[in-house]
TrEMBL record:
InterPro entries named in the record: AAA+_ATPase, ABC_transporter-like_ATP-bd, ABC_transporter-like_CS, ABC_transpr_MalK-like, ABC_transpr_MalK/UgpC-like, Mo/tungstate-bd_C_term_dom, NA-bd_OB-fold, P-loop_NTPase
Provenance organism: Sinorhizobium saheli
Gene3D superfamilies xrefs: 2.40.50.100, Nucleic acid-binding proteins, P-loop containing nucleotide triphosphate hydrolases
Organism placement in taxonomy: Bacteria, Pseudomonadati, Pseudomonadota, Alphaproteobacteria, Hyphomicrobiales
Coiled coil is among the record's keywords: no
Residue ranges of domain ABC transporter in the record: 4-234
Protein name: Sugar ABC transporter ATP-binding protein
């Protein structure tokens, strides 16, 4: 196991910069997810950690050693890809042991480590099968087994669950988390799925356009997003945001709806008001609204409402029976209001 340090790392493809000086410290044994929209540079950053891409500037340290010029196989890392990349003509056991064979390990040692990894991943009964005789989830587990047998200092995962169906993704997500809890190997995990990032990580790194927007524990990011990008990227349905300004002690949206402010708020004048769907309640008195769409999911119901007679919409979560067109009133939980500056930075 080892810590990973990324210091002012930059990447340019020709003249095009795609990573603009990213820094972060990943502790020994930590599980960190890199999350962000398509093209934000998370795979590029992971591939630089793996040594599959050159680093244009800055430094990467694994276990305190600068690895900028160290070949991938000398970095003591193991990477699990989205495509699994299993050899089709090799059995599960051969696939899992192949890297050790290349390193010149003896047959007995390889067999022992393959069996040990197979036990951890419940792959024992499948060791003699070929990849084509496995389900998607089993193939994914073999890909992880191949990483485990090497006892690497760091695991790198690049969207490993994106080829699985929704149900299997949820199961495998828990398996990977459980595996990490048992092995405690430092892990960097790339995903574009914020639920995956939230549920698995000790800490999340939210990226956009080759920059880090925020680093923090999942609930820190959820409860105190540093800016409007993180506020809307983390959480589903997304946080409701309204542009506007303070007038007469309330926040008046651009379309003229007055929203209550947290009592005693004295900070910088906000230009954006945010409230999560679960922090709005339907009450006797509050902001007048009309129900537009009702979406029951079973455990909760998402309701799209129109505020007053404006074109401002918001989403709330509730379990009450509502009909489209029904007039209601909504009140925000004032302890849960998020306020942002004109530049979208948190001010409360
Ligand atoms: N070999 C390359 N040559 C030129 N540009 C590249 C190359 N590889 C990636 N890029 C660009 O670098 C940026 C970051 O790509 P990257 O694959 O790291 O993003 P990502 O966040 O992992 O996205 P996704 O989730 O879609 O995989 C993108 O704008 C991409 O077009």
């Amino acid at each position: 196991m080892a810590s990973v340090t990324i210091e002012q790392v930059r990447k340019e493809y020709g003249a095009v910069p795609v990573i603009h000086g990213v820094s972060m410290e990943i502790e020994d044994g930590e599980f960190v997810t890199l999350v962000g929209p398509s093209g934000c540079g998370k795979s590029t950053l992971l591939r630089m950690l793996a040594g599959l891409e050159d680093i244009s500037g800055g430094e990467i340290l694994i276990g305190g050693r600068v690895v900028n010029d160290v070949a991938p196989k000398e970095r003591d890392i193991a990477m699990v890809f989205q495509s699994y990349a299993l050899y089709p003509h090799m059995t599960v056991a051969e696939n899992m042991g192949f890297a050790l064979k290349l390193k010149g390990e003896g047959k007995a040692a390889i067999d022992r480590r393959v069996r040990e990894a197979a036990d951890i991943l419940a792959l024992g009964p499948l060791l003699d099968r070929l990849p084509k005789q496995l389900s998607g989830g089993q193939r994914q587990r073999v890909a992880m087994g191949r990483a485990i047998v090497r006892h690497p200092q760091v695991f790198l995962f690049d969207e490993p669950l994106s080829n699985l169906d929704a149900k299997l993704r949820v199961t495998m997500r828990a398996e990977i988390k459980d595996l990490h809890q048992r092995l405690k190997t430092t892990t960097v995990y790339v995903t574009h799925d914020q639920i995956e990032a939230m549920t698995m990580a000790d800490r999340i790194v939210v990226m956009r356009g080759g920059r880090v927007e925020q680093i923090g524990r999942p609930l820190e990011l959820y409860d105190r997003p540093a800016n409007t990008f993180v506020a809307t990227f983390i959480g589903s349905p997304a946080m409701n945001l309204f542009e506007g300004a303070i007038a007469d002690g309330r926040f008046v949206t651009a379309s003229g709806v007055a929203l209550p402010l947290p009592p005693g708020y004295r900070g910088e004048a906000p230009k954006v008001y945010g409230i999560r769907p679960e922090h709005l309640t339907i009450a006797e008195r509050g902001v007048p609204a009309t129900v537009v769409v009702v979406e029951p999911t079973g455990s909760e119901t998402h309701v799209l409402v129109k505020l007053g007679s404006t074109d401002a919409n918001l989403v709330l979560r509730d379990r009450v029976e509502l009909e489209p067109g029904q007039p209601i009133a909504v009140t925000p939980d004032l302890a849960k209001v998020h306020l942002f500056s004109e530049q979208g930075m948190r001010v409360n």
